[in-house]
Amino acid sequence: MKTKISIVIRCLNENNNLKILIPLLQEQTLKNYEIIFVDSGSTDGTLETIKNFINISSNVQLTHIKKEEFTFGRSLNIGFSKALGEIVISLSAHCFPTSEEWLKNIIQPFSNSNIGIVFGKQSPHENTRFSEASVQKKWFAGESMVREDIFLNNGNAAYRKSLWEEIKFDETLTGLEDINFGLYAKSKGWGLYYSNESDVQHLHNENYKTIRNRYRREAEALKIIFDKFKIYSSKYNLKFYNLTLIA
Predict the structure, then answer these.
(1) CB 63: neighbour CB atoms within 10 A?
(2) Radius of gyration of the chain measured on its C-alpha atoms
(3) How far apart are CA 119 and CA 34, in angstroms?
(4) Do the Cβ atoms of 182 and 151 come closer than 8 Å?
(5) Residue 168: left if φ>0, alpha if ψ -120 to 50, beta else—which one?
(6) Burial of 130 (C-beta count, 10 Å sphere; 0-12/13-18/19+)
(7) Is residue 40 classed as helix, strand or coil in its secondary structure?
(8) How far does CA 230 lie from the centroid of its chain?
């Protein structure tokens, strides 16, 4: 597939992680891609690291969103709006590809014209807390396949830009903008594919207060999404299960 690819990476004080991630992206066998960083107020050297990367690469750009205006959906919409690729990937700054073939593998399923979204495997990083590592092992497992349920995660996911232009991410949700997007995509007949081969190590080493706050935000979002689902499930015979709360 010769389609140009865009990779959107949201950042807030991710300097140490970017120093790991950027070399891994440079090592990918597939080279026809651009990277768009969306920063929401970093103060730890993240901006300097990105600017140094821009100085040595013509396919990298940096854009900003004010911290007080940040939502997960809004920051992604900003990044996707600047993307030139036909396929746009949402990759967390703390998700590290485990293979030089990661990029090639995550876009390969789009050779099927019915596939609108692909999400990749997330393996726990060695420094990820045990509780969250257990969740990752449970939900990101099994063979590559078209998924019948509505589950994906924007830590490592790819979208047809034409589909995003039609749906866009909900900027009002406090989390789970990916699940909400998947719900609408499935209701319109698009296929959702899980790629076991496009694996990343997802580093989560947050304190318990931060984790608790994240789960609260996503529970609030889930209630809103579930109310929408009750309408769509009966109309389109959608399955809505296998949800987990991983940012």
Answers:
(1) 14
(2) 17
(3) 19
(4) yes
(5) left
(6) exposed
(7) coil
(8) 25
Residues of the chain by 3-state class (helix, strand, coil), percent to 5? 40, 25, 35
Instruction: Look at the block and give the residue holding tokens 């099994």.
Output: 142
| Bridge pairing between strands 156-160 and 115-124 | antiparallel
| CA–CA dist 49, 16 (Å, integer) | 9
Of 115, 150, 147, 114, whose CA–CA distance to 228 is shortest? 150
Give per-residue pLDDT as tens, 39-68.
Answer: 999 999 999 999 999 999 989 999 999 999
Q: Three-class SS of residue 83?
A: coil
Nearest to 33 by CA among 106, 128, 96: 106
Residue 52 one-letter amino acid? N
**Whole-angstrom distance, CA of residue 88 vs CA of residue 80:** 7
Contact of 112 with 191, CB cutoff 8 Å? yes
Q: How many angstroms separate the CA atoms of 231 and 208, rounded?
A: 35
Residue located via tokens 């257990």: 134
| Sequence-ordered strand ranges (E) for the chain | 5-11, 33-39, 60-64, 87-91, 95-97, 115-124, 145-147, 156-160, 191-202
Which pTM does this prediction carry? 0.86
Torsion sign (Cα): 164, 108, 134, 38: negative
174-206 per-position pLDDT tens digit: 888 999 999 899 989 999 999 999 999 988 665
